[in-house]
């Protein structure tokens, strides 16, 4: 078909492929296309009537171009904006754009076959695609690279022209949910004047839209939805979708508290909730709305983690039974990088959840920022193109169109297990909050909004014009619902406290309890019998003989087998044994992070790749004949998103050892929002605990400022009320026990461990078998080298610096200096530290020694904590600094040397200090 070279590549390929099929077998294409190609062949040879001439054939191609043009660009010319004129895009959709004219409108074209009409007039073809792609629903999908998905969407939309056709009961339900949404906001605005509620007004169609997601989803087999959203409209969603009682919300507006005096709580529009609802078709669905701070999109990875956890634990890998719903603001989805991180996770083996339903409340302004200043992309949802996910742009005033598009989106998600996006164009009737004046920054827009009917009024008017409902129906709905709200408000005045309707220790958390202070230091039974330990150790160090591994791997596993024989184990082996023994007990273990399968420092090798293929072998997964739940995933290059995901994963199942490891500990600063807003404070804000483990490689090894510090000081400044555990272990056995302890107590707390780098292969960093089989986690490790009566100086420290101090102590045989390791920095073992101080009663000096500068590391926290307990310490460390460490190896070595010398304070040390002070730029605090 070389005469069609003016076509686009896509058009040409499409028609060429059909033409080749026709030439091979005319019956393989539709009858209409048979006649089309017959006419083309005949016209090409100069014969046939006028309708079969090359000119007509070219017009047929132009009609195909028009159809495809509408499919690709029709969304640019829709009626989707309820309060603004749309921007103009060129070229447009005029007939001339496609080489057609009014003179062609009544000509019959075989191209009508493409849209299901058969041979049809251009007028009818154009009307169909105009109705489908340019009314109140705009669809973006042609960039999808899967022909089946494109075909499904085209057929689904074009067969119904994207025109909703709901029965009267469905219409009444939509009106009912709109009524609830509108009246609830109005009621709050009049009864609690001036209080922040982050109203949904202008976007009330969200409520019937979410209601339809649940109804349609349940019909398609979804049993549970997990929802994440920011504060805009949250109260409305809580009461009118999830069924939180109106009395509870009114109590929150009154400022009433729960009966738990230790619970600080959070503002009402940040809170979460869960419930069971019954659909119109009598199907029971569980709904959860996750709590979320004002960091708008922070909840997104948390939701995905919760869903994945439930897919793994509750639904046996079946993602069709549970779905995440993320509700975004237009400014947030376009502006916040965490959205991109979450979307990039959506198809990865370790993080996929079977597709997320994204709903954007597109009120066309972010706080005070116009959309033109909020993004460079055409649409706020252009991020969807990253994963080739379809987007439906819908006019928020057209509730039927919204429900229709949402139903289609849910069908697509269930069929293809991929993300879908609904961009609901609407507006915000008031400012960012109810006390804000939006006319300061958007005067023209808000003049239009003032005159604009709310979505309920718009829909009621439409139904009245159709004759679908009685004129009094909406008024009766409003009257009845307002009376109900008033009754609930009156009843709420009798409540003294807010009842706890979603207790922490229910569902997956059943059987666990809140930790009391006296529980924190009660030893957990984490020892493993020697028989079981050796059995598991042998199993995970045995490589199959019929597979070929790299020689270095074989030597590594030979070394590990020798550890079992010699009953002495290094750090990596202790870690793997912690996992193995938990798996053997029937627990689940999940590890993720950058390069965790091998380990950043090539120490773990939990996943082995065969030398002659890309096949992987996972020793831990072979335990109990493969009947264990061990998952380890190299993550995408993300900290924020992945840490949020793992937090959510642990939140949904406290009986899994869930671990996130940073590639280097300092990378955790990219996920600071999660540690601040969730990990450290969710118990205090939302009564939601967690068992997540964070492994942060830390230690000053001369690798410069970016790979030295995991920012111990930042972690410790978040510690209070026994909210989490912070440790810096120095022995493999202690690391083994602290990991196992996570699942061997009746309560759960997050655990942050500062893990080693160079110590992974240090000859002294080993533990013998007995420490695993008879030991337990030690919060403090005393010095066994010295006698208490001989000690004149006590050095307290944590982590790697211990081995620098130990080397000095042993080399100089300093039995007058004791080195005490604080393995758990928080909760701080104060009783144990007091006992240590009392034990060394002859000591004159008590020092805290650390590698970090004075304003970093554990010292700022330890100084305050011990001073309050009347344990006075001096400090030996680097001088305060704006950067964690030097980037020069020689300077690093000099600083380390002077820290050690100062800690022991020999005459030789004073001379060393004097000689190298100039070299270090006085970078060490020595007095």
Please tell me about this protein's structure.
- The chain is of the alpha/beta class.
- It folds into 4 domains: 2-158, Helix Hairpins (Orthogonal Bundle), CATH 1.10.287.1150; 190-465, Thiamin diphosphate (ThDP)-binding fold, Pyr/PP domains (Rossmann fold, 3-Layer(aba) Sandwich); 527-773, Rossmann fold (3-Layer(aba) Sandwich); 782-925, 3-Layer(aba) Sandwich (Rossmann fold).
- The protein is 39% helix and 14% strand.
- The protein contains 31 helices and 29 strands.
- α7 packs parallel to α13 (399-416), α27 packs across α30 (889-904) and α30 (889-904) packs antiparallel against α31.
- The relative contact order is 0.07.
- Mean pLDDT is 91; it is low at 1-8 and 46-51.
List keywords for this structure.
single chain, 927 residues, alpha/beta, Helix Hairpins, Rossmann fold, 4 domains, 31 helices, globular, disordered N terminus
- Quote the CATH topology of the largest domain: Rossmann fold
How much of the sequence is in beta strands? 5-15%
CATH class of the largest domain: Alpha Beta
Please report the distance between the alpha carbons of the first and last residues.
88 Å
Count the DSSP helices: 31
Mean pLDDT: 91
Helix content: 25-40%
Structural class by secondary-structure content: alpha/beta
For the secondary structure, the number of strands is: 29
Main sheet, how many strands, which sense, barrel?
8 strands, mixed
CATH arch. level architecture of the largest domain: 3-Layer(aba) Sandwich
What's the CATH H-level homologous superfamily of the largest domain?
Answer: Thiamin diphosphate (ThDP)-binding fold, Pyr/PP domains
Gyration radius from CA atoms, angstroms:
33 Å
State the domain count. 4
State the strand order across the main sheet.
3-11-12-8-7-4-6-5
Question: Which blocks of ≥5 consecutive residues have pLDDT under 50?
Answer: 1-8, 46-51
């Amino acid at each position: 078909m070389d005469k069609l070279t003016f076509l686009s590549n896509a058009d040409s390929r499409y028609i060429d492929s059909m033409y080749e099929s026709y030439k091979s077998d005319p019956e393989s294409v539709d009858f209409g296309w048979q006649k089309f190609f017959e006419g083309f062949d005949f016209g090409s040879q100069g014969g046939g009537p006028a309708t079969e001439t090359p000119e007509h054939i070219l017009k047929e191609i132009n009609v195909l171009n028009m159809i495809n043009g509408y499919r690709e660009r029709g969304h640019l010319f829709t009626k989707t904006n309820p309060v603004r004129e749309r921007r103009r895009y060129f070229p447009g959709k005029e007939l001339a754009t496609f080489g057609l004219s009014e003179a062609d409108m009544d000509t019959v074209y075989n191209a009508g076959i493409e849209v299901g009409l058969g041979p049809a007039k251009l007028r009818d073809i154009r009307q169909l695609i105009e109705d489908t792609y340019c009314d109140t629903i705009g669809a973006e999908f042609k960039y999808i690279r899967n022909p089946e998905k494109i075909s499904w969407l085209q057929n689904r939309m074009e067969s119904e022209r994207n025109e909703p056709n709901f029965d009267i009961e469905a219409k009444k339900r939509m009106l009912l949910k709109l009524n609830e949404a509108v009246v609830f906001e109005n009621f709050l605005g009049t009864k609690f004047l001036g209080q922040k509620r982050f109203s949904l007004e202008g976007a009330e169609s969200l409520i019937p839209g979410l209601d339809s997601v649940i109804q349609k989803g349940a019909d398609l087999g979804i049993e549970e939805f997990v929802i994440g959203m920011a504060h805009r409209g949250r109260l409305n969603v809580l009461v009118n979708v999830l069924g939180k009682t109106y009395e509870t919300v009114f109590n929150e507006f009154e400022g009433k508290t729960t009966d738990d005096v230790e619970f600080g709580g959070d503002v009402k529009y940040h809170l979460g909730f869960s419930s069971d609802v019954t659909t119109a078709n009598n199907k029971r669905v569980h709904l959860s709305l996750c709590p979320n701070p004002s960091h708008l999109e922070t909840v997104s990875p948390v939701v995905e983690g919760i869903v994945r956890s439930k897919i793994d634990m509750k639904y046996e890998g079946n993602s069709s039974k549970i779905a995440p719903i993320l509700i975004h603001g237009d400014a947030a989805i376009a502006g916040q990088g965490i959205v991109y991180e979450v979307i990039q996770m959506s198809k990865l083996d370790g993080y996929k959840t079977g597709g997320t339903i994204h709903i954007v409340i597109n009120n066309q302004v972010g706080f005070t920022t116009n959309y033109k200043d909020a993004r460079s992309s055409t649409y706020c949802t252009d991020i969807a193109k990253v994963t080739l996910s379809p987007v439906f742009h819908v006019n928020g005033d057209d509730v039927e169109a919204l429900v229709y598009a949402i139903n289609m989106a849910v069908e697509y998600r269930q069929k293809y297990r991929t993300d879908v996006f609904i961009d609901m164009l609407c507006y915000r009737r008031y400012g960012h909050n109810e006390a804000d004046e939006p006319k300061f920054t958007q005067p023209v827009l808000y003049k239009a909004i003032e005159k604009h009917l709310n979505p309920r009024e718009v829909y009621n008017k439409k139904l009245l014009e159709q004759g679908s409902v009685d004129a009094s129906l909406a008024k009766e709905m409003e009257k009845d619902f307002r009376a109900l709200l008033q009754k609930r408000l009156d009843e709420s005045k009798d409540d003294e406290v807010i009842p706890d309707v979603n207790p922490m220790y229910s569902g997956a958390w059943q059987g666990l309890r809140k930790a009391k202070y006296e529980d924190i230091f009660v030893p957990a039974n984490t020892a493993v019998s020697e028989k079981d330990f050796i059995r598991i150790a042998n199993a995970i160090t045995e490589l199959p003989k019929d597979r070929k591994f790299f020689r270095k791997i074989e030597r590594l596993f030979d070394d590990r087998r020798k550890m079992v024989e010699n009953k002495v184990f290094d750090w990596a082996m202790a870690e793997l044994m912690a996992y193995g023994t938990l798996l053997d007990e029937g627990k689940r273990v999940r590890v993720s992070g950058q390069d965790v399968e091998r380990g950043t420092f090539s120490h773990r090798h939990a996943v082995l790749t065969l030398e002659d293929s890309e096949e992987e072998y996972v020793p831990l997964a072979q335990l109990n004949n493969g009947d264990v739940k061990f998952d380890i995933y190299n993550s995408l290059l993300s900290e924020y998103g992945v840490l949020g995901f793992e937090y959510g994963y642990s939140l949904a199942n406290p009986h899994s050892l869930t671990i996130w490891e940073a590639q280097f500990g300092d990378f955790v600063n990219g996920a600071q929002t999660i540690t601040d807003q969730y990990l450290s404070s969710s118990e205090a804000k939302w009564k939601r605990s967690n068992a997540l483990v964070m492994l942060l490689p830390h230690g000053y090894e001369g690798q410069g400022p970016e790979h030295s510090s995991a920012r111990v000081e930042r972690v410790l400044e978040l510690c209070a009320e026994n909210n989490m555990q912070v440790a810096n272990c120095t022995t493999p056995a202690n690391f083994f026990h602290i990991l196992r302890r996570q699942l061997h107590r009746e309560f759960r707390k997050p655990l942050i461990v500062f893990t080693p780098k160079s110590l992974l292969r240090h000859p002294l960093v080993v533990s013998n078998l007995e420490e695993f089989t008879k030991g337990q986690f030690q919060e403090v490790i005393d010095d066994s080298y010295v006698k208490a009566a001989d000690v004149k100086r006590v050095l307290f420290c944590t982590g790697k610096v211990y081995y620098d101090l130990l080397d000095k102590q042993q080399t100089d045989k300093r039995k007058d200096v004791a080195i005490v390791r604080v393995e758990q920095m928080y909760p701080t073992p104060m009783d144990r530290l007091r006992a240590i101080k009392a034990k060394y009663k002859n000591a004159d000096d008590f020092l805290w020694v650390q590698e970090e500068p004075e304003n970093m590391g554990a010292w700022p926290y330890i100084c305050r904590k011990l001073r309050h307990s009347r344990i006075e310490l001096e400090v030996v460390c680097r001088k305060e600094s704006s950067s964690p460490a030097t980037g020069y190896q020689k300077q690093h070595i000099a600083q380390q040397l002077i820290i050690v010398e100062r800690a022991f304070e020999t005459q030789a040390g004073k001379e060393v200090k004097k000689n190298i002070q100039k070299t270090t730029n006085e970078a060490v605090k020595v007095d």
